[in-house]
Design goal:
With 247 residues, the protein is mainly alpha-helical. The protein has one domain (2-22, 30-245). The protein has helices at residues 2-16, 23-26, 29-63, 69-86, 88-92, 97-125, 127-154, 159-170, 172-183, 187-214, 220-245. α1 (2-16) runs parallel beside α7, α1 runs antiparallel to α9 (172-183) and α3 runs antiparallel to α10. It starts with a helix and ends with a helix. The relative contact order is 0.22. The mean pLDDT is 82.
Length: 247
């Protein structure tokens, strides 16, 4: 039962990250851009670190090397989800404001649901893996939620309404966790598949969304800072695994 509440608590904390959009009120545009500049690099490092150093090794240890094929499935699934739910309207350019915001919310909801499943599967495997996975997802959620909030504001929503919708959509992560914790008769059997799938998703997000954003800045000094933040993201994952793995 402790695992249940730890997983639900972690997912709820991740859901609270949706309120980071309030930073758009507290900070000026330049300050927001600076925050995103560092957070995107940090998030990329933490997600790559979590995938290669924690999720995949745990999955292989539990189910053998064949489980790695599910990482490929994860990459493909995240590509399809992003293509048709989150970015499709931007590329076509024919959607009205309502569709623009609705598709953003739907895409975010599906993404959060999967995040919740991954966190729950990680906690079912071990407490330290659950914490490491949660840290990696939080690192990615901060810049993502800032972006999602901006999309809703751009689509015509009032600030408080946008925050409320963002939080409600973020709670789909709790539903995803409950599916794993309560809906599966033997979640330990399925955990390696979800861990490998989640690792593929982490790698897709970092390599397809985050790292390309890092390449947009070609200034030598800032590029070095990006590299340092990327390395820091990896080190935080290593540190979290070391600290909580001994707890």
């Amino acid at each position: 039962m402790d695992v249940f509440w730890e997983a639900i608590g972690a997912v709820f904390i991740v859901s609270l990250i949706s309120f980071v959009g309030i930073a758009s009120v507290m900070f000026k545009k330049k300050q927001q851009d600076e925050l995103l500049f560092y957070m995107i690099s940090f998030a990329a490092g933490s997600m790559v670190g979590a995938a290669f150093l924690d999720l995949l090794p745990e999955a292989v240890a539990s189910a053998g090397a064949g489980i790695l094929s599910w990482a490929i499935v994860g990459i493909g699934a995240f590509f399809v989800m992003e293509k048709f739910l989150h970015w499709y309207h931007c590329h076509k350019g024919h959607c009205d404001t309502h569709a623009f915001t609705t598709l953003s919310l739907v895409g975010d909801g599906v993404h959060n649901f999967i995040d919740g499943m991954i966190i729950a599967a990680a906690y079912m495997t071990s407490r330290d893996l659950g914490i490491v996975t949660t840290v990696a997802i939080i690192a990615h959620e901060i810049p993502q939620e800032l972006g999602d909030y901006s999309v809703l504001i751009y689509g015509g929503m009032k600030r408080m309404k946008a925050l409320a919708y963002n939080f409600l959509v973020a709670l789909t992560a709790v539903a995803g966790a409950l599916v794993v914790l309560l809906g599966m008769s033997n979640p330990e059997t399925f955990s390696p598949y979800l861990l490998s799938f989640g690792a593929g998703g982490f790698l897709y997000i970092s390599c397809s969304d985050l790292i390309p954003e890092m390449h947009k800045n070609i200034d030598a000094k800032k590029s070095l800072l990006q590299l340092l933040m990327f390395a820091l993201g990896v080190l935080v994952i290593v540190g979290a695994a070391a600290v909580f793995g001994e707890a």
